[in-house]
Design a protein that fits this description.
Layout: E1 8-13, H1 16-20, H2 22-32, E2 37-42, E3 53-55, E4 58-60, H3 68-74, E5 80-84, H4 89-92, H5 97-113, E6 117-121, H6 125-129, H7 132-143, H8 151-171, E7 175-177, H9 196-205, H10 220-227, E8 233-236, E9 239-242, E10 248-250, E11 254-258
Parallel strand pairs: 1-2, 1-5, 2-11, 5-6, 6-7
Antiparallel strand pairs: 3-4, 4-8, 8-9, 10-11
Helix pairs in contact: 2-9, 5-8
Organism: Lignipirellula cremea
Protein name: SGNH hydrolase-type esterase domain-containing protein
GO molecular function: hydrolase activity, acting on ester bonds
């Protein structure tokens, strides 16, 4: 696919919150940034920064080791905006605060090499604090049945990771955005659909010179198109699937690369 020189490049790093709301994220970015956009996203349910993860037979590489980084370095320079979020998944997979922060720091160092304006999104602590031990274990059994994480240990690691992530963002010159408790409902880690648009406007508003002034409109067709693009690499049980990038283009002027 022949790419035009973009007016802005956007890098999204995260897990299920990015994947579920990607259509809204694209809409908010399209409204807020003029010209041709080049969007690179490493995302997916259960995705982690430091570990290969597998959910229902679908495996994805660690964000820190996926091919987004080599593709980003190889593309022609362009003003770049990045959002780094969904950091807490690594904790569920057994990572320590030190491991999580080392992975995120590597990502931030690479983004600094392309002079990216970066927003780092904190963990949803307010939502997690409301869980309590019983609901915490129920949540783990539903979404991550393999995890043996205990509530006290998980919350201690989450709090420490959140605070050190905030400091890391400051050290790296990134904008740190804490998450609001009302963005979450019964599900403690996935943004409520009604808050997708204001959340993404919050994430982008620190780096956009012309942030969107109205609610991003949903589009079932765009949602389906975005969710059916193939990433650069994924595994279905023992079958490895590779996809050429960019993997799609929107008529509104957005090139898409999934990792």
């Amino acid at each position: 696919m022949q790419q035009e020189t973009p007016s802005r490049r956007i890098v999204l790093l995260g897990a299920s919150n990015v994947a579920k709301s990607i259509s809204t994220a694209v809409s908010v970015a399209r409204e807020g940034f003029p010209g041709q956009l080049d969007l690179l996203a490493a995302m997916g349910h259960g995705r982690a920064y430091t570990r290969h993860t597998s959910v229902l037979g679908r495996g994805l590489p660690a964000i820190v080791s996926c091919s987004l980084w080599s593709d980003l370095a190889a593309r022609p320079p362009a003003p770049t905006t990045a959002v780094v979020m969904d950091v807490g998944n690594d904790i569920i997979f057994g990572a320590t605060t030190e491991e999580v922060l080392a992975g995120v720091e590597t990502c931030l160092d690479r983004l600094a090499k392309v002079d990216a304006q970066v927003t780092v999104v904190g963990l949803p602590l307010a939502s997690l604090e409301r869980l309590g031990p019983w609901r915490f274990q129920l949540f783990l059994r539903l979404f991550f049945p393999f995890s043996r994480l205990e509530y006290a240990d998980g919350m201690q690691t989450a709090r420490a990771t959140h605070q050190r992530l905030k400091q890391l963002a400051a050290d790296q010159g990134a904008t740190f955005v804490p998450q609001r408790g009302d963005w979450y409902g019964v599900d403690p880690i996935h943004l409520r659909r009604s808050f997708w648009s204001p959340a993404w406007k919050n994430f982008f508003s620190f780096t956009s010179d012309a942030p969107a002034q109205r609610w991003a409109l949903g589009s079932p067709g765009r949602f389906l198109y975005l969710r059916t693009r193939s990433p650069a690499l994924r595994k279905w049980w023992n079958w490895e699937q590779r996809g050429l990038q960019p993997c799609g283009r929107l008529a509104s002027g957005v090139d898409l690369s999934w990792y």
